Amino acid sequence: MTVTEDESIALWEALDLYESVGWMTYTQHPEVLARALAGSTFLAVARDASGHLVGVARAISDDATICYLQDILVRPKYQRDGVGRALLGCVMERFAHVRQTVLITDDEAAQRAFYESLGFTEVADMAPEPLRSFVLLR
């Protein structure tokens, strides 16, 4: 398994990966996914020994004050093998100088445990004062 920075993900392999994890909002509009990948500041890519795409982490950043982790996904067959941790590590290393890293994820206990194990804090749990986070989805 290799995890590297890569800007050359073929659309067909990205669609296959996103479909494997059930992210149908992305796969229903391939042209939007293509633009999203092309417009990303940074892509970390995991491939198996045969070069098959098994995971992606996609970040958007101003490279100074904020890094937004937009997507982190791992093909189900490879989940719980450290791939997600390696992808996130690649993003965190690239943006180590940035003050804040933000992400939005599903409300699942496993998601929370994963991100907390890597040092993230849920916004409502920030101390000494809680923060608020707002989202507008269209």
Description:
- Strand 2 (42-47) and strand 3 form a beta hairpin.
- The protein has 138 residues and is an alpha+beta fold.
- The chain is built from 5 helices and 5 strands.
- The mean pLDDT is 92.
- It has one domain: Aminopeptidase (3-Layer(aba) Sandwich).
- It has helices spanning 11-20, 24-27, 30-39, 83-94, 109-117; strands at 2-5, 42-47, 53-61, 66-74, 100-102.
- The protein is globular.
- Strands 1-2-3-4-5 form a 5-stranded mixed sheet, with helices on both faces.
> How many H/I helices?
5
Envelope shape:
globular
Integer-rounded radius of gyration: 15 Å
Distance between the amino and carboxyl termini: 36 Å
The main pleated sheet reads as: 5 strands, mixed
Number of discrete domains: 1
Q: Order of SSEs, N→C? A: EHHHEEEHEH
Strand-pairing-aware structural class? alpha+beta
Beta percentage is 15-25%
CATH topology: Aminopeptidase
CATH architecture: 3-Layer(aba) Sandwich
Defining key terms:
five-stranded mixed sheet, 138 residues, single chain, 5 helices, alpha+beta, 5 strands
Mind sketching the topology for me?
Layout: E1 2-5, H1 11-20, H2 24-27, H3 30-39, E2 42-47, E3 53-61, E4 66-74, H4 83-94, E5 100-102, H5 109-117
Parallel strand pairs: 4-5
Antiparallel strand pairs: 1-2, 2-3, 3-4
